[in-house]
Design brief:
four-stranded mixed sheet, about 30% strand, alpha/beta, about 170 residues, single chain, NERD, five-stranded mixed sheet
Length: about 170
Amino acid sequence: MSDLLVANPKSRTGYSQIDHVVITPQGLFVIETKNYTGEIKGTRKDKSWSVSNRCKMYNPFMQNYGHIQAIRSYLPDYQSSRYISLVSFTMRCRFSVDPDLRKVQSDELIVYDVELSEYIQRKMNRIQAEKVDVILMESDIQKIYQALSAAHLTDPKIRAVHVEKAGSVGKGNR
């Protein structure tokens, strides 16, 4: 799913706009995409990250955590499912981040857009090798997809309100 907009009373705007959700038997990959140029610096715990020391952005993992919580609120039967937070940047930047965020064993990964599919596949393979009990069946995947589709807001007025309230903060386009 792409460009998923759902109501989220815990968000500053009242909504969460999720760039991508990939539903797999191994779990849900929630993907935040960023389009910055320069050196990206930050740690998992920093509230904000810097872009070439010239501007700040809200920590994309904290942003994506909010997205995951919003998604979970629509999936009461799938609270114990695995949610993997992926933050994808274009190749126009370079990372100066915690190296653990690049390791496939983490459920929080920072990747370049060109390696996104590869990281998803590697992560799925790793989870499969772990022999985790909670595997989503095809019927579960369909139920999750249907629940998120039903929650997805398409009204252009609602989208405009969200974009206006969000402003340029957290948009990730520099």
